[in-house]
Write a structure and sequence with these properties.
This protein has 344 residues and is α+β, with helices and mostly antiparallel strands. Helix content is 63%, strand content 8%. Strands 1-6-2-3-4-5 form a six-stranded antiparallel sheet. α2 runs antiparallel to α4, α3 packs across α4 and α6 packs across α7. The radius of gyration is 39 Å and the shape is elongated.
């Protein structure tokens, strides 16, 4: 006879767990349905974030420029040291060869005791002449030995200096790679933010930038603002000749620039060499702390860490290379935190 067993009932604990899970699922579904979708930042928020990223990228760019400049100097110094070492080694080899020849001659002429040589000599006067030559040769040999020792010390010092600079160069190249990666990361993030905007929003931002540059250009009044000097005026004229050239980090002309690349290039066209980075340019001349005392062609340093520089254009305006995505243009000094001017 078949047995009729009652189906096993779920435990109270299991029923409670299932009921609670089902209720939670209903609540989550309702919340998901009612939750507002994550809001995309508007163009003004994007601009604020992008501007901050551009500033951070420019800070890294100036460090990158400084590392590049240091690398170039080190490479030149190392080349000079290596040339000096090569020439010094040849001089040392020549001194050693000369010393060896003297030693051989001394051995050939001085191998016999002087008293025996005098006894055997058929011509005492000839012997005395030879003895005098031997004394002279010995003095010359001593002098050559001293020269060899001095040259050896000099070469050891130059080799040590070259070795230290080679290590410094390796460290600088590591720093270069690090800063380049940092700049590219900041610019990549900024570009992603810009790509999130619609075509209309991008056009509106571009229009704002153009309007700001146009207003600044209209305010430039060179006739009422004297140039700091003939060369400062020439540097400013050079910078004017490349207005609308694109900003490219690490570039120093003649077709693209970063901020300090523009100022150093402009002064080079006027026959004046100034440092490559904005931080170094801040110490390249007389500081002018009053904006009213600025003259056309003076450098203008911005931000507390001095990571941005331009050329004073008169009437409260600056000519500069602003940031990635922009071009060389005029802009109001008031748009950035002014620190001081520098008269070269």
């Amino acid at each position: 006879m078949a047995s009729h067993r009652r189906p096993k009932q779920p435990s109270r604990t299991r029923v409670t767990v299932l009921t609670t899970a089902a209720a939670a699922a209903v609540v989550l579904s309702a919340n998901a349905a009612n939750a507002a979708p994550s809001e995309k930042p508007n163009k003004d928020e994007v601009k604020t974030k992008v501007d901050k990223l551009y500033q951070e990228a420019e800070q890294a760019t100036e460090k990158l420029d400084g590392a590049k400049e240091k690398q170039q100097k080190l490479q030149k110094q190392i080349g000079t040291l290596q040339d000096n070492v090569a020439r010094g080694q040849q001089e040392l080899n020549d001194l050693r060869d000369g010393l060896g020849s003297m030693a051989s001659a001394q051995y050939r002429t001085g191998g016999i005791d002087p008293s025996v040589a005098l006894f055997l000599s058929s011509d005492p006067n000839d012997f005395l002449d030879k003895a005098s030559a031997m004394d002279q040769l010995s003095a010359q040999q001593v002098g050559s030995l001293k020269k060899v020792q001095e040259k050896q010390r000099s070469l050891a010092q130059q080799r040590a200096e070259a070795s230290a600079k080679l290590k410094d160069l390796a460290d600088t190249r590591t720093e270069l790679a690090k800063k380049k990666k940092e700049v590219q990361s900041k610019l990549g993030t900024a570009q992603k933010l810009l790509n999130s905007l619609t075509a209309q929003e991008k056009a509106a931002l571009a229009s704002q930038e153009q309007d700001r540059a146009t207003r600044a250009s209209e305010r430039v009044d060179l006739g009422n603002t004297p140039a700091a000097s003939g060369r400062a005026g020439a540097a400013f004229a050079a910078a004017q000749s490349v207005i609308n050239s694109p900003y490219v980090y690490g570039a120093s002309g003649p077709s693209s620039f970063d901020c300090s690349g523009l100022t150093s290039w402009a002064y080079a066209q006027a026959g004046v060499t100034i440092p490559r980075t904005s931080e170094a340019q801040a110490n390249a001349g007389t500081r002018i702390y009053s904006q009213s005392a600025l003259q056309v062609g003076d450098l203008v340093i911005f931000y507390g860490d001095q990571h941005h520089v331009g050329l004073y254009a008169g009437n409260g305006q600056v000519l500069h290379a602003p940031h990635t995505g922009a071009v060389v243009r005029y802009e109001s000094i008031a748009n950035m935190p002014f620190q001081f001017g520098v008269r070269i």
